[in-house]
């Protein structure tokens, strides 16, 4: 029988169905291959994010160690004016350094202290107390003058140098004095054990510093109490167990101040030769791939290593670090058209979810990076004293305050979006007062874009709702108006009493929202025409949070076009007929 005859005998429908099945299998195979590639990329991106967390944590520990060390210099060098020039004839005597310079040091019994002064450039050295070991004396004469002339030490004014005589490791604390030309006149110092034998500052930092925020929605455990603003629990050392079911059970709760450091990583402090000075927890597990390290030259060149525990790295990234595996639908799709279609739809849904998650992470990282860079730059300018006038200093502080408000607003939006359920209180609220506080909070950001905020609140307006939620709604709406509106625009906040409701509105002068998009903007991760690199930024969460908060208060929201151009946002709250606006 010819091929044509066989086809006629079988019929066209089975052939078409077979061809469709083959086509579905082929398309599904290609989709699975693409999914595996995306999974590898997602895993690499997640691992990079976790490593960034570790690097950020090590940087924070190094900066706090610098601040702790600087505070240690206040007591022994109290009479020195390190930020003012000296003339050689007015240099302080060596005896002004107390016999026990730092009473907080814990160096052990029998610890003797010498004090010294090095005059430069002659390098003439004076000692008070028991002279140092010859090895240390040579280091003081040769190394301290070189270090004192380093630009970074001239700027900071102090430093610690680790030495190792036969009696064991110790440190040398020293400060420099400068003349009016910025040249080092003399170096003062004393024998110390800070940072090598006395490691109490490292231990204190590890106990109190919370360097990593809670990344899993809803962190809390039964029996948890708050002490000095830090979450404590008797399960803190055993919260992560081998059973994944137990992990998921415990990881659903909430740590208000972030996870305890012991549950996240191992902090190791090493000297410039790589020897361990301090480690917490002792013998803690480390990962060769997930770590961050930051040096601190001011304190003996120590390095702060933060090694994330491998078993908690997956909790620092939303969704965890993906594991590469072949989807089970690959085997099932070959046997059934229905399962093939269902698997293909599931794959497409997963890709959309992954794209949304990656877009969210990229947008939030972009939003965080800009204000952090601004804050860091101007903090360094202030710390190094590079502001020439009071106006420049005030301008730097204004920018730092503005960017801090921007970070607070973004963090509030992310935290609100991460809440699995919104539990808001219902109380009598003076909406006009809430509008005033929100306007005051947002004014620095508005002024940065030369915008004005006008309040149209002729009388008190008492509604039923949550004052914090109403304030967050206003801040999110104001943020959108500032992002998309022109520079120099006027934003108006109005409040009116209606017969059965309190109406709160915000008018801007922006380009407006097309009618076809007014329902989409309430969805999460939706940004009209925005990209990660555009000037508006944002994570696409602002109006989604507004919608959820309004629904939780049984209020309604609406967007409309103003006759004179721009957008009017309206929030209709239930009016309180027998309450007062005490809670605002």
> How far apart, in Å, are the first and last alpha carbons?
88 Å
Order of helices and strands: HHEEHHEEEHEEHEEEEHHHEHEEHEEHEE
Overall mean pLDDT stands at 75
Uncertain runs are 5-15, 215-254, 530-536
Number of strands: 18
Let me know the largest β-sheet.
5 strands, antiparallel
| CATH homolog superfamily of the domain at 419-574 | Histidine kinase-like ATPase, C-terminal domain
What is the assembly state of the chains in this entry? Answer: single chain
> In CATH terms, what is the fold-level topology of the domain at 419-574?
Heat Shock Protein 90
Shape: globular
Name of the CATH first level of the domain at 419-574? Alpha Beta
Count, helices: 12
Explain what you see.
- This protein is an alpha+beta fold and 584 residues long.
- The longest helix has 61 residues, at 12-72.
- α2 packs across α5 (200-208), α8 (337-383) runs antiparallel to α9 and α11 packs antiparallel against α12.
- The chain starts with a helix and ends in a 10-residue tail after the last strand.
- Strands 2-1-5-4-3 form a 5-stranded antiparallel β-sheet.
- Residues 5-15, 215-254 and 530-536 have low confidence and may be disordered.
- It has helices spanning 3-10, 12-72, 134-148, 151-156, 200-208, 244-250, 329-332, 337-383, 390-418, 431-448, 467-484, 542-552; strands at residues 114-119, 124-129, 158-163, 170-178, 184-192, 225-227, 230-232, 265-270, 276-280, 291-296, 302-308, 427-430, 452-456, 462-465, 490-497, 501-507, 556-561, 567-574.
- It is globular, with a radius of gyration of 32 Å.
């Amino acid at each position: 029988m010819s091929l044509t005859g066989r086809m006629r005998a079988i019929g066209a429908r089975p052939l078409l169905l077979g061809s469709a099945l083959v086509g579905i299998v082929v398309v599904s195979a290609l989709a699975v291959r693409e999914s595996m590639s995306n999974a590898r990329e997602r895993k690499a991106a997640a691992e990079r994010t976790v490593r960034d967390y570790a690097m950020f944590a090590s940087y924070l520990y190094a900066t706090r160690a610098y601040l702790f060390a600087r505070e240690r210099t206040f007591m022994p060098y109290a009479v020195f004016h390190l930020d003012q020039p000296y003339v050689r004839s007015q240099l302080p005597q060596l005896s002004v350094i107390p016999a026990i310079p730092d009473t907080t040091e814990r160096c052990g019994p029998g610890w003797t202290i010498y004090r010294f002064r090095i005059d430069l450039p002659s390098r003439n050295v004076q000692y008070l107390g028991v002279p140092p070991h010859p090895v240390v004396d040579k280091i003081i004469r040769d190394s301290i003058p070189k270090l004192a002339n380093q630009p970074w030490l001239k700027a900071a004014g102090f430093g610690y140098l680790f030495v190792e005589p036969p009696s064991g490791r110790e440190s040398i604390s020293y400060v420099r004095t400068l003349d009016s030309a910025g040249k080092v006149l003399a170096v003062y110092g004393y024998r110390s054990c800070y940072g090598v034998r006395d490691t109490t500052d490292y231990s204190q930092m590890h106990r109190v510093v919370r360097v990593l925020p809670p990344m899993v929605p809803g962190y809390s455990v039964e029996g948890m109490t708050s002490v000095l603003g830090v979450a404590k629990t008797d399960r803190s050392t055993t919260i992560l167990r081998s059973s994944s079911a137990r992990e998921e059970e415990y990881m659903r709760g909430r740590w208000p101040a972030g996870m305890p450091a012991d549950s996240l990583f191992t902090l190791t402090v090493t000297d410039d030769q790589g020897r361990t000075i301090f480690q917490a927890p002792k013998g803690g597990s480390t990962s060769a791939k997930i770590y961050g390290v930051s040096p601190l030259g001011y304190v003996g060149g120590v390095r702060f290593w933060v090694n994330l525990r491998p078993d908690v790295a997956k909790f620092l990234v939303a969704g965890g670090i993906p594991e590469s595996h072949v989807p089970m639908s690959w085997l099932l799709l070959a046997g059934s058209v229905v399962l093939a279609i269902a698997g293909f739809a599931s794959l497409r849904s997963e890709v959309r979810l992954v794209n949304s998650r990656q877009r969210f992470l990229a947008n939030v990282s972009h939003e965080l990076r800009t204000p952090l860079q601004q804050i860091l730059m101007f903090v360094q300018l202030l710390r190094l004293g590079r502001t020439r006038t009071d106006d420049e200093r005030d301008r730097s502080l204004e920018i730092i305050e503005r960017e801090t408000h921007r970070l607070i607003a973004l963090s509030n939006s992310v935290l609100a979006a991460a809440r699995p359920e919104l539990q808001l209180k219902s109380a009598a609220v003076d909406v006009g007062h809430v509008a005033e506080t929100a306007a005051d909070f947002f004014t620095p950001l508005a002024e940065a874009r030369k915008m004005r905020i006008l309040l149209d609140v002729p009388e008190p307006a008492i509604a039923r709702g949550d004052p914090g939620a109403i304030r967050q709604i206003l801040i999110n709406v104001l943020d959108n108006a500032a992002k998309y509106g022109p520079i120099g625009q006027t934003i108006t906040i109005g409040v009116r009493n209606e017969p059965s409701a309190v109406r709160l509105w915000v008018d801007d002068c922006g380009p407006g929202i097309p009618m076809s998009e007014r329902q989409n903007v309430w969805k999460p991760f939706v940004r009209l025409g925005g990209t990660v690199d555009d000037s508006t930024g944002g994570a696409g969460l602002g109006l989604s949070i507004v919608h959820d908060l309004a629904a939780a208060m049984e209020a309604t929201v609406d967007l409309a076009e103003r006759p004179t151009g721009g957008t009017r946002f309206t929030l209709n709250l239930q009016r309180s007929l027998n309450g007062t606006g005490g809670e605002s």
